[in-house]
Amino acid sequence: MASAQxxxxxxxxxxxxxxxxxxxxxxxxxxxxxxxxxxGHLSPDGxxxxxxxxMARMLNDAGIQAFATADVNALGKLGFLRGVDGLIPVxxxxxQRFDLFLAVDCGALDRLPPEARPFAExxxxxxxxxxxxxxxxxxxASIIDPTASSAAxxxxxxxxxxxxxxxxxxxxxxxxxxxxDTGRFAYDSAKPGTMRAAGDLLKYGVRTALxxxxxxxxxxxxxxxxxxxxxxxxxxxxxxxxxxxxxxxxDFRAVRGTKADAEDIIEIPRSVVRNEIALFFYQIPxxxxxxxxxxxxxxxxxxxxxxxxxxxxxxxKAAGCTIKAPMxxxxxxxxxxxxxxxxxxxxxxxxxxxxxxxxxxxxxxxxDAKQPEAKK
Length: 376
Ligand SMILES: [Mn+2]
Fold this sequence. Notes:
This protein has helices spanning 10-15, 20-31, 46-61, 117-122, 151-162, 168-181, 192-202, 208-217, 221-233, 249-255, 267-270, 303-308, 327-342, 345-349; strands spanning 35-39, 65-70, 88-89, 100-104, 125-129, 141-144, 235-237, 242-247, 277-282, 291-297, 313-314, 318-323.
């Protein structure tokens, strides 16, 4: 079954021509490694987790020992993925030895899990990422494509370029990664190349309906309790243009929930009619002196402009940051930043030219996206 891979069509190779040198550089480091440590970003999402599980498995199949690591207590719903049992819990990394670091879906060292960071700092590093704020300057070799829907889409391309065989475990990991990062193929980031990758994955027996039910259709009680609390906190201003919700540490504690139980909370402020800037403020346990903020935008607003004010980053329409202040102060600071943005000076300068997409050249590369930091 594994030999059912698509032939890598000429069109695709052409659109990738400029990437080939990067692909070669990444492979030459990988193939020379004895033990590869693979990590995505902190609080792994579907793309981080799926990409690293797939890469670990494919590298092992290729005869290279590779280990993915994550905070296994923070997987939430994604814990159903076959392949998570092979993860090294981050707290067990210390005693391990590696000779190469592969960062996937993470374009900045300080977005890695703290336990993985020391390895990233001292080992040669390879980066596969799609964050617009990713520069790859800390990497020895990298494949960074901000036009890709997900890191997983790049992983898939790399696998095809390598001629690697997929299996159902790899296919489901990559499927979940692409589905979650594209909002079930709903975001503009879903391009022909994304669908081509997804279409190929379906050939390996991905349990699409089951996966959809697990990720989007059903919720544990504590997640529903958090939604209820978040709904009550909904604050709408500027006639809906801006909407925000928040969850405090105590809210999480009351239901014994974690951030993983609050993954789609941002959809609450986003669902307000005419909403253009949605904010979700939340605290994580033991860190009441800082407040995380997830940002989603519509229209021209660049979410990374808001996130960057607080040292964060991400994508144009989805970004995040950690504000070094307790909830109340953090909210005031972010609201001020939003008002600044609305006052339009930033609106003009932050506008990025839309990426021109030729019908048959979906992966046209966008060369310079420079900013310090990245988030999911
Ligand atoms: Mn991603």
